[in-house]
Amino acid sequence: MQTEPSPPLTPDLLLRGYAMGIFPMAEHRDDPEIFWVDPRRRGILPIGGFHISRSLARVMRRGGYQIRFDTDFAGVIDGCADRPETWISAPIRALYLDLFEGGYGHSAEVWIDGALVGGVYGIALGGAFFGESMFSRSPNASKLALAYLMDRLAIGGFTLFDTQFITDHLATLGAQEIPRAEYHDRLAKALELKADFNRQQAVPTAQDVIQRSIQTS
Fold this sequence. Notes:
By secondary structure, the chain is an alpha+beta fold. It has a single domain (43-85, 103-216), classed as 3-Layer(aba) Sandwich (Aminopeptidase), CATH 3.40.630.70. The chain has helices spanning 11-20, 54-62, 73-81, 90-101, 141-156, 168-172, 180-191, 206-216; strands spanning 23-25, 35-37, 41-44, 66-69, 105-112, 115-125, 128-136, 160-164, 176-179. The strands form two sheets. Strands 4-5-6-7-8-3-9 form a seven-stranded mixed beta sheet, sandwiched between helices. A hairpin with a 2-residue loop joins strand 6 and strand 7 (128-136). The radius of gyration is 17 Å and the shape is globular.
């Protein structure tokens, strides 16, 4: 019996998947196939619950870096994929670049001396932000990107930061693991909101980010 080929994954279908609580992955860099994932337990980083350690606060105050948003989305994706094993295949990269062009994809970037040294990227939908991946070519760069991103999301009115899975590294920053049913409930509520990633116009000072983190943690 002949079966119909599955429809190609488009940016619109990808957004519909996120709204349903599932996300795409590939087995490896060269895998042309994309599959959907819906973990039994989901990693989240509570908005307002990002933990800025004393050592990270010192790094932030010391300066010597520049924070930018959405100036090199492709560069952040490529930085995240620049490792021996990655699920970021060429089709997935192309889909996220399309979502960025459509205003759904966003990146938080750390620059030092004109070079992109770290960052995180994800998808914003309603009041939910789906963090996809992050990378670091300089000590603490990914932590810096995440600290400024979390501050921006809080000010923009987001209520859910989805990390998909949880790692020991994310746990030290305040990430938690919740059951699938609870995640879907939080997602449904977040999608009803009209958050604004660009509500925070200027990049805040390190002290402002640290202070707001203390007040909300």
